[in-house]
Amino acid sequence: MKIENVDIRRAADSDAAAVADVWLRSYTAALPSVRRAHTDDEVRYWLREIVVPNQETWVATVDGSVVAMMVLDDEELDQLYIDTPWRGQGIGDRLVEVAKRSRPTGLALWTFQVNAPAGRFYERHGFVEAERTDGARNEEREPDVRYVWSPDPAVRP
């Protein structure tokens, strides 16, 4: 079921607390076996002081409440989290469309290998697996996978 009354817009500084809430709830629900590298307070600080004011942060809202967040950093889709009750309703699809329009030459992202639903989601959107690692380069020390999307299939790995 897709909902129609979703507003997607750039995040304002005043959205930072709601963005952090969505990030924390979604991460916990989607990745229960992954060790978090930072406390809730550290995540809130990072999103409030660094991410929302300084990076291209997008939110999806329903009736004024933030239900999803996305961060684009150069050609990276750096963060994409949908609050659990809102998953499967097309909000992530719409955010990926925004990312592709914002980065028409291509995007890349990392996700944890254990997050198979995320891998399937990105593959449905034309992202192709480019690399797998043992997690030694991420803070969580969790095996991950890099996906890339290019509008030109000849450029894909």
Identify the CATH homologous superfamily.
Answer: Gcn5-related N-acetyltransferase (GNAT)
Alpha-carbon Rg, integer: 15 Å
Sequence of strands across the biggest β-sheet = 1-2-3-4
The CATH C-level name is Alpha Beta
Number of strands: 7
Q: What is the chain-wise order of helices and strands?
A: EHHEEEHEHEE
CATH topology: Aminopeptidase
Total helices: the number is 4
The gross shape turns out to be: globular
What's the structural domain tally? 1
Largest sheet: 4 strands, antiparallel
Which percent range fits the helix content? Answer: 25-40%
Structural class by sheet pairing and helices: alpha+beta
Uncertain segments = none
Give the distance, in angstroms, between the N- and C-terminal Cα atoms.
Answer: 33 Å
**What's the architecture in CATH terms?**
3-Layer(aba) Sandwich
Descriptive key words:
single chain, Aminopeptidase, three-stranded antiparallel sheet
